[in-house]
Every structure is written in structure tokens, then in C-alpha cells.
Specification:
The complex is a heterodimer of chains A (241) and B (214). With 241 residues, chain A is of the alpha/beta class. In chain A, 37% of the residues lie in helices and 29% in strands. Chain A starts with a strand and ends with a helix. Chain B contains seven helices and 13 strands. The chains are: A alpha/beta (241), B alpha/beta (214).
Chain lengths: 241, 214
């Protein structure tokens, strides 16, 4: 299982927020590039970078910070937040991003995902952000009537690299995660599922990895990693074991 | 002080390659000076040369050739003076005789073989080959000192350099089909993967290159 330390960007800084609410932001590093260097040096094989301002605005807001991360990280980067067109995606691939995450765009314009996945096989991930059982968009400011598996099934044969499933109700809360939110998605489609939101301990990583049913391909680590509740080395061991 | 010329011809991976080289150099007893440059004089006189590269073979070759005096300076440094050279990704592919992409384009022709599109035998092997993959075979000791076969590196490419002289192949990898992950002939080395995105193992390759005395 691949672990993705999250670097969430707000106003040029590396922050963690609770349940997607930007007003709750806690700054963990004023230099996102420094944070990227630390996580890649700690042994994580991928980084998960989100432009939080960008997700709400629908366009890149923290471009400078993302470029600094790309220069500094010694591991590939997947990037989400505000990427709404093929041109946006092309510019980021050109800048050195390894995988693009489409969220809102995937709900509003599924054809965009299909076209992008044909153009960049293995280069597109779709994020499905679930709150109270329904998918939320626009930086989680707006709910839709679709369930997670509804959205996931749309992309069953689109050739996307991963579905990143976020449990908004638990994201940043450290109250422990609900494995079945991710499990239901993994069992619904053949696309690799990356779990995000609420992982609180190394034991949670172990539970994801040893779950009965379709394996979970990866997990995004956020607040628990920054707060020290998850030790990077122990996490990597638990994911590899 | 030793100088390393990182050739700046507009390649997208230049900033990350530059940073990674600085980090690798920092671990050496006598760190060299690393300059991103397109200045033919600096390149002709450099102790070591690194050529990054992403995108299309023909476009990269054209970009190199469009810089005044650059190909001559490169040739002087690595062929006449024997300065150690490292090509990264398309920078490695340019060492080939030809690129077969849209028709045929000439390369630097330092190492025998052609660059062609990956053609894995089953659709589950996607092109581009994107992700972590292992270095296989007997690894070249100049580039891979301290790294065992099976070490993972990060790849992202649709084309590969099928060097035809087996003695030039410094490591293999397999993505549906088996192809060279690295080549080396004399003072000329190239890696298909991105050492600058391959964490500590990639850093080790860069450090090995900086310490290498062919």
C-alpha cells in the first residue's frame, strides 16, 4: 500500500484544516517546499499536494508554492485543487506534476476525465469527497445528490489511475476512520482506491492493508502525521508489511 | 573547484534536477560548483555534464541544436576531453543514434541503438510507463555503487532507448517488455528514470556520478 503524505496549501503555507473548512486552518509549515523535502526524505514514495484556495476558486491560487514543491521534492507529486480543464492539466504536467487529481471537474464534466485519461494514461486520479453519504464539490462547499459509488462507477472503464476517496466527516478530526467508507468504493469498482480522511494511527494503516475484500491501494496521511500521532517510519513499515 | 554544467535548454525537470544535484554534491568532501547553463564556454570547460530532458526526442534535440555553439561545446567536453556525462530521461535518449517518433530524427549518436515507443504486449501495461519500477540485471558499478538489483526508481516515459550493444546497458527494467533503465559507454552514462524524483536511491545515483572517475 502506498502512503501519500498530504501537503495542503492555503495562502502559500502548508496547513491542515478540519472537515474542509478553511477557517479552521492550522499552519504546520510556512515553507511548503521544506515540508515536501522532509516528507520525501522520510521515505514516502509519493506526495499528495492540494491547493485549498484553488479548490474553492476553481483555478490555481498557490502556483508558486506548488512549483517550489516540485523543485524540492525527491518524489513524484500528485496535485489537486482548482484543476478544471485539459489546459490546466497540461500546464501542470509540463511543470513536473506526475498525477493530476480531478474532483469537481469529475462530477460536473465526466467527459473531461475520460479525455484526460486517454491523453495521460496513469496520469489522472479522480477524487470523490463524501459527506453524509453524498459527494461534495467546490472545495467541499457544495453537496450533490450523488453517492460515492455513483460517481466511481462513471469512471469504471475510463482508465484512471486511482480514486481518492475522502471521508469529509472525519477529515482532520483524528477521531478514527470508518474503513467501510473506503471499502464500499473499493468493492464497487476495479479502480485502485486511495483512502483519505481520518487516519489517526499506524493501526489504522494496518487495518486498511489487511481489510478483507478488495485491497485498498493507498492512504493519504494528514493531520495525524503532522501532529506526531503517526510516526513516518512505523507507518511505512505498516504499509509495506 | 570542480564544475558541473547542468545544461539549461528549457527542460521542465531542470529545477528539480538542479536541487537534487546540489543535495548530492553537499554530501561530498569537496562539493563541486553546479551551474545551470547554456553557455558554450562553461560547458566546453566543465568537469562534468548533466543533460536533463522531458517530452519529445525531436523537440529536445532541436532545442539543443538551436543554442549557438552548444552541440560543439558538448562534443568537445565529453568526446575530446572525456568529461563524465549523465543524461536523464530524454537526456539519455538523445545519446542514441536515432529517435523513431514521427518518422526518424538523428540523435547525438554516442551509443548504438534507437529510441522507440514502448510497445508492451498486453493492455494492462499502460504507456506512458509511469511509476516506481525496479532496476534489474547486473547493475553497472560506476552508476549504481551501493544500490542492489531490485532498487526502485521513478519512471515516466513513453519511449525508451533500445541500445543494441549489450555491453552498453547499465541496468534493465521491465514494463510488459524489458528495456534499458540505464546505459553507459566509457565516460557517457544515461538513466531513463528520474533520479531527482527517486528519493534516496536517486540521490545515490547522482552522488555516484559526481564521484565517478572513468
Amino acid at each position: 500500500m502506498i502512503l501519500y503524505p498530504a501537503i495542503d496549501l492555503k495562502d502559500g503555507q502548508c496547513v491542515r484544516v478540519v472537515r474542509g473548512d478553511l477557517a479552521t486552518a492550522t499552519v504546520f509549515n510556512t515553507s511548503p517546499a521544506d515540508q515536501a523535502r522532509r516528507w520525501s526524505a522520510a521515505g514516502f514514495s509519493w506526495l499528495h499536494v492540494v491547493d485549498l484556495n484553488g479548490s474553492v476558486a476553481g483555478r490555481a491560487i498557490n502556483e508558486g508554492a506548488v512549483r517550489a514543491i516540485l523543485a524540492e521534492a525527491s518524489a513524484p507529486v500528485q496535485l489537486g485543487g482548482g484543476i478544471r480543464s485539459l489546459a490546466d492539466a497540461a500546464a501542470w504536467f509540463e511543470a513536473g506534476v506526475s498525477r493530476i487529481i480531478l474532483g469537481t471537474a469529475a462530477v460536473e464534466d465526466p467527459e473531461l476525465v475520460r479525455t484526460a485519461a486517454r491523453r495521460w494514461p496513469e496520469g489522472i486520479a479522480v477524487s470523490v469527497d463524501v459527506r453524509g453519504g453524498k459527494v461534495a464539490v467546490d472545495g467541499w462547499t457544495r453537496d450533490t445528490s450523488l453517492t460515492g459509488p455513483d460517481v466511481a462507477r462513471r469512471f469504471e472503464d475510463a482508465g484512471i489511475a486511482a480514486l481518492i476517496v475522502t471521508d469529509i466527516d472525519r477529515d482532520g478530526s483524528q477521531i478514527g476512520f470508518d474503513i467501510e467508507v473506503f471499502g464500499a468504493m473499493a468493492d464497487a469498482v476495479a479502480i485502485p482506491v486511495i483512502a483519505a480522511g481520518g487516519l489517526a494511527s499506524v493501526d489504522d494503516i494496518h487495518r486498511l492493508r489487511t481489510r478483507a475484500g478488495t485491497p485498498i491501494a493507498g492512504a493519504v496521511l494528514g493531520r495525524a502525521l503532522y501532529a506526531g500521532a503517526i510516526d513516518p517510519r512505523a507507518a511505512l513499515l505498516a504499509a509495506a508489511a | 573547484m570542480q564544475t558541473v554544467a547542468l545544461i539549461d535548454y528549457g527542460s521542465g525537470n531542470l529545477p528539480s534536477a538542479h536541487k537534487a544535484l546540489l543535495v548530492a554534491a553537499g554530501d561530498l568532501a569537496r562539493p563541486p560548483k553546479i551551474s545551470a547553463t547554456a553557455d558554450p564556454e562553461l560547458i566546453a570547460g566543465a568537469d562534468r555534464i548533466v543533460l536533463p530532458g522531458v517530452g519529445a526526442f525531436a523537440a529536445c534535440m532541436a532545442a539543443l541544436a538551436s543554442l549557438p555553439g552548444l552541440l560543439e561545446a558538448l562534443d568537445h567536453a565529453v568526446r575530446e576531453r572525456g568529461a563524465p556525462f549523465l543524461g536523464i530521461c530524454v537526456g539519455m535518449q538523445l545519446m542514441a543514434e536515432r529517435g523513431l517518433e514521427f518518422g526518424e530524427s538523428p540523435g547525438l549518436a554516442w551509443v548504438t541503438g534507437d529510441v522507440r515507443r514502448l510497445a508492451p504486449p498486453a493492455p494492462r501495461f499502460k504507456v506512458p510507463h509511469m511509476g516506481w519500477n525496479t532496476l534489474d540485471g547486473a547493475l553497472d558499478q560506476a552508476l549504481f555503487t551501493g544500490l542492489p538489483a531490485g532498487t526502485h526508481m521513478y519512471f515516466t516515459h513513453s519511449f525508451a532507448f533500445f541500445a543494441t550493444d549489450l555491453g552498453d546497458i547499465a541496468a534493465w527494467t521491465t514494463h510488459g517488455e524489458t528495456f534499458p533503465a540505464a546505459v553507459r559507454r566509457d565516460n557517457l552514462a544515461g538513466v531513463q528514470f528520474h533520479p531527482e524524483k527517486s528519493q534516496g536511491a536517486g540521490g545515490r545515483v547522482l552522488a555516484n556520478f559526481l564521484a565517478w572517475r572513468p
